[in-house]
Amino acid sequence: MLSSLSRNWWLLALRGIAAIIFGVLALVWPSLTVLSLVVLFGALAFVEGVFSITTAIAVHKKNEYWWAILLAGVAGIIIGLITFFWPDVTALALLYLIASWALITGGFEIAAAIKLRKLINNEWVMILGGLLSILVGVLLVVFPGAGALSVIWLIGSFAIAFGILQIVLAFKVKSLAPQTHD
What we know:
84% of the residues lie in helices and 0% in strands. The protein is an all-alpha fold.
């Protein structure tokens, strides 16, 4: 596992760079970030709904569960329309989705760091990234009314800090490449 990680250190660095770019863009254009997330989600749900309905119609004679695909499609279209007509509700739902993602990701980052602590030095970088993710998730859940702008600033700042930690971790992992043996 460690040799695979050290061979692919650049993926961690790339992940960090992408997070930093996203964070900077979120800080520079916060209103565009919220609107973009909502519109993209709405479009995805709507298009997925149309494709699901089309699939259900195409397989209704061959698949006894075609109705479940049809219902999923109808739900997708409804969610897509709700997103377009009530973007504020969707933004709040996305806030909770992002909070959930941050909490789950943070937990897994900490678990991975604990598992790797006997194999690598300075696992605290990975633990700190996990704790940062959990902190962001908790803050988003506890203070959802703080407003979209402050949430975007929080997410942008988190993304930059997390990106920096990922780049540090990438170079630490890269330095282990010659010594690793699986």
